[in-house]
Structures are given as C-alpha cells and as structure tokens.
Write a structure and sequence with these properties.
Length: 291
Amino acid sequence: MDTKNPSKNPRIFRCTFCDFVTANKKDYGRHLATQKHKTRQKDTNDTKNPPQKPQTCYECQICNKSYKYSSGLYRHKKRCIESTHISSNDILNNQLALSKELIMNVVKEQQNQIKELTNTIKELIPKVGNNITTTNQKFNIQVFLNEKCKDAISMSDFIKSIEVSLQQLDYTKHNGLVNGLSNVIIENINKLGFYQRPIYCTDIKRESLYIKEANSWEKDINKEKIKRAIKDVSTKQFFALSKWTKENPDFQNNENKQDYYTHTLVAIANNKENNEDKIIKKLCTSIYIKE
C-alpha cells in the first residue's frame, strides 16, 4: 500500500515596497539587491521620517521665559505685564523703608563732622584776625540771599508747581533715572528768574547748598532737603506714567504700548538712594554761583 506524503504549503516571500511576491528565496534575495528596490525603500523611509525643521523660540524680554509659539508668548506677556504693574505708592514705601537706616547713619556722621569742624574753627579764630573781615567784604552769602533773593519761591512751592511732561518721561526712559530726574528739576529752575530760584550752590566740590523754605534761607548741611525734593519729583514721574495708562487703557493689548510702559516703569523705579549723589552733583553744576 503506497503512502503519500502530505503536500507542504510553500513559503511566500513578499516585498511591500515594490509589491513583489515569490516562493523562491533566491529570487527574493536577488530582488532585494536590485537598484529599483533600494530606491523605493529609501523614498518610503524619507516620506515617513521627513527632516525636522528647527523650532522657533519666542522669548519674553521681561522675565526671559521661552515659548514655542507666538500665541503662547502673547498670552504670557499680558500676565507678565500685570505682575510688573506695581503701584507707585508701594514702590515709594519700600524705598523709604530701606533708606531710613541709611539716612540716620548719614545724619549721625554729619553731626560728628560738624562737631569736629566747630572745634577746628574755635582754634582758628584767634589766628585769623582781620582776614575774616576781608572775606566778608568780598562776598556774604547771607546778605545775597536775604536781600537779592528775598522774593524767591520756596522749595515746597517750587516742587508743587512741577508737572512732569510725557517728553520728560520719555527722556528718563531713554537716558536713565539720574539724567531724567535732573532734567525735570533743572528745566523747571531755568523757567524762573535768577533771583527767584529756591536753591543755590556756593561750592561744587563740597556740594554746599542753600535752600529757601518757610520764608528763610538755610544751608542744607545734611542734604536732607534736596534729597526729599528729589523723592517728591520722582513721585511726580509715577503720577505722570499713571496718567498715561488712563489715557491709554488698551496698553496691555498693544505690544508697542506694553513695551513703552514696561521700560518706562523700570527706568523711573530704579533705586534712587544709589543715584541721589549723582543727581545732586548734576544739580550743583547747574545752580552754582561764584562767591
């Protein structure tokens, strides 16, 4: 009795890239080596894995956070601007708290210097003699102030009369706090007649200042009066910027206005205590009178 071997199912070799089918393994191997197969295989892989384009990065100029899309940056800038929108009163209160200890130290140091100077003068008086009379004949600052400048405006009234313009605010934005505050004060002083000014400098090197207040002239020994005036003018800059935001209620939705507000706020909110000496030096040069 003959026994027949059951027929085996032939193995099929298929190339999906070229739609090639064969039951012969050698034929399949020859097909894989053809240039046609290699070209189609490469084209298919390139289509599935296209070269990636470099991603564009959008960065916030205020806090340096990065975003993949410009829309994400736009939404972030609204929140970022709002977080920097600090009220002028808060800024002033913080700065006053920080400067209180510094002012007390300066006052104490100045008092010690005055005491030492007084002792030195007492020692020199017997030696000077008639030279004091000669010096007084050349120039007497008190006579000049009380007679020539008796109708001068007081410092407090002068500060009240100042209104910071948008041009002056823009000047501070581009040139910094020292130049900006000095510019506001000097421009308003120059509007007055020479004998109507509330402040004079008699020694640029020593920064000797005489300021009129309450109908009398006094030497600003510790520079407390001029520093208070600088703070008051700085406050007026914040009020000017606040007025601008009320006149431009859409500034948070306008990129150019957002940039103007942010950069101006950064300029006028700079630490005044670190810049007061520079501002006073600029003022002394402009209001100096020769003895």
